[in-house]
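As practice, study what follows.
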Amino acid sequence: MPLTLLLLFHILSPVLAWLPVEDWESGNVTTSGGGLECVCSVFLPDSTFPADRVQHMQQVTTDLRLEVEIHMNKLVHYGGKLDIFLGELMDLTVRVAMLESSPDNYIKLDFELLRIELREFEALVSQLKDSFNSTSPTLDSLYTEIHNMTLIVNQLETFDKSNLEVIRIEFAKLQKKLDECQQEQEFVEPDIGNCNHTGIMRVNKPVVFQLNAHLNPGYQYGGWGKDSKPVRGYESMYWYGAYSTPSVYEFYLYSNYDKLLQRSSFTHHGLPQGYEGTGNNYIVHGNTVYYQAANPFRMSKLNLTSSLYSHRQITKASERFTYMYSPNQFLDFSADEKGLWVLYATEEAMGKIAIAKIDEKSFGIEDEWTTNAFKPLVGNAFMVCGVMYATRPGDLKTEEIYYSYDTKTGEEKYMSIPLQKFQEKFVNLHYNPTDQKLYMYNNGYYVSYSVRFNKE
């Protein structure tokens, strides 16, 4: 074998020994000039370290570890809940065993529940008696029946369980009479347009209609309601306007309540440049929108039929004092059985609310009264029969009508009439004399209240 071939074989022998046999390629033998020459072909595979595969395996391992930890946490959570459910089941088992062994305990519980219901009935009848204009024979009879039922419960508690069914039957009859009496009281036809009462007695629970016509909770500023002095043919019309900022630039009108819920307006008014408003205590009165213009600061009105604008400045009105929930609310329009009003604070009165009567023809101020309600502490205010009522926050879900001022007598009163809010803040609260309801725009929702009065 030639020396060159031996040398080459000696160099490659360690490599060939490392390679698997199947990676070797076959050689061939050729002759050159009568001599024998061996030619070997060797295939060397890629020996680069597989770092990408190792990295992939590390990522898979990490993901698997996280997934196992998640499932372990779930098992711990389910184990805790299972312990709670087992404890409740044991408690129920004990209670059932007690009832089975001592049926008298069950009877005593029923009698105690009957006493609680009787006390609730008695309180309800007392409230109903206070809310009627005069004495009611029906309520007097119910009050007597409740007293007699209390005596019967006390007597029958010493008897056996079978007497309990007799009491339940009598209770059902009494409940039916109370329901009928309460419905009769709730659905008394309001004396629309008259002020033969001594003021607000209470405000019913709110009726929440739906989210605003934009179906967007971001439209937190605005208002809605009915025309407080509707023209012929538009008695059922509703209006609405809302915005994401305390601005006023458009209004929507709906022919009736159903169209309001369907968000199907019959007309839309956009305020042109230079006529935009700010603040949100605007109303519709006599087919005219009354609102606070932005620049310059003044009270404005837009006739919805002729689309004509009118403006008047109130020199006494301050741009420094606004309601607690309503940014930039310096002029607050209100309408009641006595006409059209505007409320504002003055620098002269150091932020206390002033009441001004508006002459609808001249769009001027007829008269003015100063109250002791400090505007920055007031949630909102409205007029009813020439009396201003102011609210203040009670808690997150309750407002309180706490103050009133009578423009006829100059008399001030402090009171506490709860007003349940749908959510914490509201920006428009006004009274409508056509149905004796309060309309509130509560954080983007339509809300209304029925008002009950103390009758003379």
Summary: Helices lie at 3-18, 51-101, 103-131, 137-156, 163-186, 257-262.
